[in-house]
Amino acid sequence: MKGVLVRADKQRALLDGALRVVARDGFSRASISALATEAGVSTRTIYNQYGNKGALFRAVILDSSTAVADRQITVVDRMLDRIVEPFDDLVAFGEAWAKPDPETALHFAMIRQVNADSDHIDPEVLGAWRAAGPDRVRAAIAAHLRRHADSGLFRIENERIAALHLIALTARTVQADAGIDSGELIRAGVRAFLAAYGAAE
């Protein structure tokens, strides 16, 4: 019955296997049999542990989002903890943030599938994913910007909006690249950010 515990190694294999299947096939098309085959477990193991595919998916997206957010927050803390030269330091942040990370590739492939299939996913699951992943990362960026604004480095009223702008003007600009050099895009994005939020001369 649901709630029977499986060994930690089998649990890890199940979560990792399900991540690969959902990243490849999407939530709606991922079958219990495909999830079990990929993880090397029986379908009974999945039903015993989670009860249904939706509960397994919730566990997978929360597990993956938490790990990726932890990884991204490490970058945020390293790059934004100390800002001396706003332009140079924010460019360095943008370059680090936009750099592809092979360790997170499967996660973001899954997120692309989730975004395409969001009408068929429980809104509670989507909210839990955002809270465990993107919201935590944005909050970490916002906290650094707030601290630097309080010290006079930036002019920021709403640090959450400023964090969204910083991401949009750097990493997301590169992701939407139209054939322009990524370094040039990031530098232009940082100039735009500082034009809006830079401290008055």
Automatic annotation (TrEMBL):
It comes from the Bacteria. Residues 31-50 bind DNA. Pfam families: TetR_C_7, TetR_N. Keywords: DNA-binding, Transcription, Transcription regulation. PROSITE patterns: HTH_TETR_2. Residues 8-68 form the HTH tetR-type domain. InterPro entries: Homeodomain-like_sf (IPR009057), HTH-type_TetR-like_transc_reg (IPR050109), HTH_TetR (IPR001647), Tet_transcr_reg_TetR-rel_C_sf (IPR036271), TetR_C_Proteobacteria (IPR039536). GO terms for molecular function: DNA-binding transcription factor activity; transcription cis-regulatory region binding. This is TetR family transcriptional regulator. It comes from Gordonia neofelifaecis NRRL B-59395.
